[in-house]
């Protein structure tokens, strides 16, 4: 496990005042399992979560376009997608999130997620940019991670 990625997540989560930050890495025979995680006290881990993200809308969007998905009110997102809302509840009642793709040579290699479990919130452009910069760092550091 890369201590530098864990430290990056700790710093990012604290800077954004979020309860959870994760990096899910694309690996053979699995679809983006949680490889790195930073949790605020009392926040549940997603490391054992077995959600197949191929069935979820956010990773599909990021695989098709290099970018970021910002949900200021996750409860209002994808209103007709019951699987998304079941996952959101398993994730501690996730209320808002930023998910940023980590790309290498144009390929999505990881997902950087920031979860706020307390309430819907507006993410500033500075916060969004901070996540984009962190995602680029993660993509570069994955080569160094055991």
Put the structure in a nutshell:
By secondary structure, this protein is of the alpha+beta class. Helices cover 33% and strands 24% of the residues.
Keywords:
single chain, 146 residues, alpha+beta, Beta-Lactamase, five-stranded antiparallel sheet, 5 strands, 33% helix, globular
Structure description:
33% of the residues lie in helices and 24% in strands. The protein is an alpha+beta fold. It contains 4 helices and 5 strands, in the order αββαβαββα. Strands 2-1-5-4-3 form a 5-stranded antiparallel sheet, sandwiched between helices.
**Ranges with pLDDT <50 over ≥5 residues?**
none
Strand arrangement across the biggest beta sheet: 2-1-5-4-3
Number of helices: 4
> What is the name of the CATH topology?
Beta-Lactamase
Structural class: alpha+beta
What kind of sheet is the major sheet?
5 strands, antiparallel
CATH superfamily: GAF domain
Per DSSP E runs of 2 or more residues, the count of β-strands stands at 5
Radius of gyration: 14 Å
CATH architecture: 2-Layer Sandwich
How are the elements arranged and paired?
Blueprint: H1 3-16, E1 20-25, E2 34-39, H2 57-64, E3 68-71, H3 82-90, E4 96-104, E5 107-116, H4 125-141
Antiparallel strand pairs: 1-2, 1-5, 3-4, 4-5
């Amino acid at each position: 496990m890369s201590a530098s990625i864990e430290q990056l997540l700790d710093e990012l989560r604290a800077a954004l005042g979020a309860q959870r930050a994760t990096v899910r890495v694309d690996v053979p025979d699995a679809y983006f399992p949680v490889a790195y995680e930073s949790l605020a006290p009392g926040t549940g881990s997603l490391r054992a979560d077995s959600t197949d993200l191929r069935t979820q809308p956010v990773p599909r969007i990021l695989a098709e376009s290099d970018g970021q998905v910002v949900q200021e009110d996750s409860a209002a997102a994808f209103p007709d997608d019951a699987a998304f809302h079941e996952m959101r509840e398993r994730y501690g009642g996730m209320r808002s999130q930023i998910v940023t793709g980590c790309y290498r040579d144009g390929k999505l290699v990881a997902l950087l997620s920031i979860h706020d479990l307390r309430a819907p919130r507006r993410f500033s452009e500075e916060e969004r940019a901070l996540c984009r910069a962190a995602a680029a760092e993660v993509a570069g550091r994955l080569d160094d991670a055991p």
